[in-house]
């Protein structure tokens, strides 16, 4: 290989251009939770790998988590594996079950939330927490999962008064619990989010804008497939009123998103399977999102190639 080609290959392993979707091409990444910490943009996604038994396998193969930061406004830096399935103190080994995570900052500490299969053999996932003094880790992983809740897709909201809410769940029901100040225990029993439309739901993500709580979620809209929908309310517990779709279905597979305001612009992060063409080898993407004057969200058209 020519020296110049080798340099390009090595660089593209660590850095990929922001200017195009998908955001990175050296890994399959899904469920991107984007966060802005101290003005810098980070993404905490999950990681799909090719199953040993072939792509016809009906299940996701997700052995670990990587994380990324935006460098110089145009490249995504990959920090490598921040948690491997076999390092989860309470987790089943080799479960390939490291689904969508989230990370938030409270005080000077970063809290990384992730679902995993517990080693007690139960069918449902639990949610664990790791802490770090840096957004990029290393994280110190808690010895146990958060007691009192079962489910996937942790999504965190820290309100203006410092109270923290954990949204989670999948299937027909999504839930919210307030967390204690230690961020590792629930302060209130899970409450079901009411008044959402029928259909399979997951991927909760709640954010606050102009005093309104936007509860957003992946929703298998009857007759259409996976969409991203939203509801609004005046309290982090709801009640919420369904307002419509942020993104229509873009293919026969999951979608999972997060929404951040970065440098004054709203961005929707989500996933598709641009590179593989296979809906269990996904790639994270991003497109700008806008609000109308009445506070409703303009539907985002994915910038598909
Ligand atoms: O990536 C595994 C699962 O698929 C996530 O937890 C769901 O939100 C869906 O994207």
Automatic annotation (TrEMBL):
<dbReference type="GO" id="GO:0004553">
    <property type="term" value="F:hydrolase activity, hydrolyzing O-glycosyl compounds"/>
</dbReference>
<keyword id="KW-0119">Carbohydrate metabolism</keyword>
<keyword id="KW-0326">Glycosidase</keyword>
<feature type="site" description="Important for catalytic activity, responsible for pKa modulation of the active site Glu and correct orientation of both the proton donor and substrate">
    <location>
        <position position="153"/>
    </location>
</feature>
<dbReference type="GO" id="GO:0045493">
    <property type="term" value="P:xylan catabolic process"/>
</dbReference>
<keyword id="KW-0732">Signal</keyword>
<feature type="signal peptide">
    <location>
        <begin position="1"/>
        <end position="19"/>
    </location>
</feature>
<protein>
    <submittedName>
        <fullName>Carbohydrate-binding protein</fullName>
    </submittedName>
</protein>
<keyword id="KW-0858">Xylan degradation</keyword>
<dbReference type="GO" id="GO:0030246">
    <property type="term" value="F:carbohydrate binding"/>
</dbReference>
<keyword id="KW-0624">Polysaccharide degradation</keyword>
<comment type="similarity">
    <text>Belongs to the glycosyl hydrolase 43 family.</text>
</comment>
<keyword id="KW-0378">Hydrolase</keyword>
């Amino acid at each position: 290989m020519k020296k110049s080609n080798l340099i390009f290959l090595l660089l593209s392993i660590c850095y990929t251009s922001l200017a195009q979707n998908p955001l990175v091409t050296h890994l399959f990444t899904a469920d991107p939770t984007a966060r802005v910490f101290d003005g810098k943009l980070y993404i905490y996604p999950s990681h799909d790998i090719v199953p040993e038994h072939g792509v016809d396998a009906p299940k996701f193969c997700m052995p670990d988590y990587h994380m990324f930061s935006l460098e110089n406004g145009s490249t995504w830096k990959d920090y490598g594996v921040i948690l491997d399935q076999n390092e989860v103190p309470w987790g089943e080994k080799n479960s390939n079950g490291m689904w969508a995570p989230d990370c938030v900052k409270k005080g000077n500490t970063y809290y990384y939330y992730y679902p995993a299969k517990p080693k007690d053999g139960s069918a449902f996932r639990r949610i664990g927490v790791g802490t770090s003094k840096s957004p990029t880790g290393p994280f110190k992983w808690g010895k146990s999962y958060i007691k009192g809740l079962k489910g996937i897709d942790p999504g965190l909201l820290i309100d203006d008064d410092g109270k923290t809410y954990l949204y989670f769940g999948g299937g027909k029901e999504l839930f919210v619990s307030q967390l204690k100040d230690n961020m590792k225990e629930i302060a209130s029993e899970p409450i079901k989010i009411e008044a959402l439309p029928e259909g399979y739901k997951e991927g909760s993500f709640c954010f606050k804008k102009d005093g309104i709580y936007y509860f957003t979620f992946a929703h298998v809209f009857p007759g259409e497939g996976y969409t991203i929908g939203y509801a609004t309310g005046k309290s982090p517990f709801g009640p919420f009123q369904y307002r419509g779709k942020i993104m229509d279905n873009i293919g026969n597979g999951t979608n999972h998103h997060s929404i951040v305001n970065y440098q004054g612009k709203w961005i929707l992060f989500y996933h598709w399977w641009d590179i593989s063409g296979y809906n269990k080898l996904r790639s994270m993407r991003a497109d700008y999102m806008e609000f109308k004057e009445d506070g409703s969200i303009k539907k985002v058209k994915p910038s598909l190639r």
